[in-house]
Automatic annotation (TrEMBL):
Originating species: Salinadaptatus halalkaliphilus
Full protein name: Uracil-DNA glycosylase
Region of interest (Disordered), residue spans: 1-21
Domain Uracil-DNA glycosylase-like: 30-173
Keyword terms, alphabetized: 4Fe-4S, DNA damage, DNA repair, Hydrolase, Iron, Iron-sulfur, Metal-binding
Gene3D superfamilies associated with the record: Uracil-DNA glycosylase-like domain
GO terms assigned for molecular function: 4 iron, 4 sulfur cluster binding; deaminated base DNA N-glycosylase activity; metal ion binding
Listed Polar residues bias regions: 1-11
Length: 210
């Protein structure tokens, strides 16, 4: 496989507009991990899934640590929880910019950063998209599959399901803050099943999505 880049954080050098944080605050939590990965874990924004202190997606928060635990169990992550070493796995957010405490991204905020997320997703061009939470799942299903109109956005029902996209597989993950008995085991089992079969499909995201 051709090596896309050896850079771990913001491997493609994106520079989205930064206008919501103070001069001494982190501006964004960029995509992080193995840019040649087959598995791309997609969250909402730093205020939900963490990284404002570390600069790494899925750190610091309860949800972030739970996702990391699953990745470690699956053999994707090792080392420090704040700066993990990832193999065959990339982490990013639909909305990478940091916002002041207590602020949530608006519809316009998400729209402004959509092209950066889309460009990164196409560049990584993973086989498996693991969408964490309502926002990320809705976006991935709506923009990168033909399934959104047929599926109710009920994360309890969608959790750990295989949903075919265009050239890849989407696996929604219920936000860990809402997990009930069996949810953690379900996503672990789903990843184990995927890894146990020939999950690689023809990569067509870069040319067929849009």
């Amino acid at each position: 496989m051709q090596n896309v880049t050896d850079r771990t954080s913001n491997p493609f050098g994106f520079r989205p507009p930064f206008d919501r944080t103070g001069s001494d605050e982190r501006t964004a939590v960029f995509g992080y991990g193995d840019a040649n990965a087959d598995f791309h874990v997609i969250g909402d924004h730093p205020g939900v899934h963490g990284g404002r202190r570390t600069g790494v997606p899925f750190t610091e928060t309860e949800s972030g640590r739970a996702i990391q635990d699953v990745l470690r169990e699956g053999g994707f992550s090792a080392g420090s929880m704040d700066e993990p070493s990832l193999e065959n796995c990339f982490l990013s957010y639909v909305h990478m910019n940091c916002l002041p405490d207590g602020h949530e991204p608006t519809t316009d905020d998400y729209a402004t950063l959509e092209r950066f997320f889309d460009a990164e997703l196409r560049a990584i061009n993973a086989h498996i998209l693991l969408a964490v939470g309502d926002r990320a799942t809705d976006h991935v299903l709506r923009e990168y599959t033909t399934q959104r109109g047929r599926l109710e956005l009920d994360m309890a029902k969608l959790h750990a399901r295989d949903i075919r996209g265009r050239g890849f597989l989407v696996v929604p993950i219920r936000d860990p803050r809402e997990w009930t008995d069996g949810d953690r085991d379900a996503i672990g089992s789903a990843l184990e099943a995927i890894l146990g079969r020939d999950y690689r499909q023809t990569k067509g995201v870069a040319t067929t999505v849009g």
